[in-house]
Input
Amino acid sequence: MSDEEFHAGEVTLVTIVAEAIVEARLLRALKDAGAHGWTVTAARGEGPRNRRVGDLEGGNVRIETLVSEAVAATIMARLAADWFPRYAVVAWTQRVQVGRIERYL
Amino acid sequence: MGSDTLQLALDNIVSPPVLAFALGLIAVAIGGDLRLPDAVYQGLSMYLLLAIGIKGGVALRGADLGDILLPALAALALGIVIPLVAFAVLRWLTPFDAVDRGAIAAHYGSTSLVTFTAALVFLEAAAYAVDGYAATLLALMEIPGIIVGLMLAQRALGGGVAWGASLREVLVGKSILLLAGGLVLGALTGVTGYARIEPFFGGLFVGILTLFLLELGVLTGRRLPDVRRGGVGLPIFALAFPVLTGAAGVLAGAAVGLDVGTATILGVLSASASYIAAPAAVRLALPDANPGYYLTAALGITFPFNLVIGIPLYLAIAKAVIG
Output
């Protein structure tokens, strides 16, 4: 099948790994920033500060969302302002190819 | 402690739940990994909350509301006063700022389900009856301490804490919904309904508690290296404060006319520190408070202390006061 039939195109994948306790709040913030959907999976790991209560509240979660470049920038800016200083949160972005691009823009 | 209480304390140490806790601690010390899968741990905590709630609810159905009023008021008063005292004592014992002190006060004001459960199992083995509304006291003491602790920290921060939202998340969180829901469920279904689920919620109870304590042993073991980070004041607080509040709880119980077993439970509830509901609320409302302090004190020191020494000690106090 060709790219055209897939409606393929480039979007930004934002991946956030955070202590599970903030999951609900984080997802609300993502929605506010313009994300239409996401995938959440349980995650394990260790960070440099380890200032969290994760062990009692379900460890970490990994949230992935496919968004436009502008929405990704908004998400990263809000994370930097409200989340990074307070909670165990890491986030990164990458440009990826997706099918049915109209779903994400 | 009298010699018979000492014997009970020794029996307690070799009870399966306490030994499982020790196994978890030892596993961490030698680098092993005995953690339960996350979903299992969450499931077990749901089971314990619901089982305690239902059992309490069944007993509540047969109880006279007039009998419960005074103990309930005593429990509420303790839930409010204990964090205030903790906040003041910590100022004297530690160099912590108001946020960390408020965070720790919230934990000690709230209660620990597993300590309560271990005390029920201990008292049952020692043949002391506990009034059925004990689980109601547990539910009543879970939240006020958290609110007071957060308010103390908030006052110091000048009102910049969005703790209303955090509190809502705790109130609709698993621990309150299951406990309160279980109480209602038990009260509605009564003895006849309970008989049908007793093999699961009653018969298997101590076994499930044993599994849960294995997990808590691992979590406690992981917290222990943090103990020295809080200075000497924190361990002193985490060991001495429960004795003070445990005795206060027993005395309050005696004052409102509770029997030995139930007064011991009120002592245990007063002495125990939360490590499920309070950490969640505090983490959300006071992200700047250091979990290395509040979790280490509540889970790393006070919980094992109460499990092994505190529970028999509060019974000994109750026996001395009430006879």
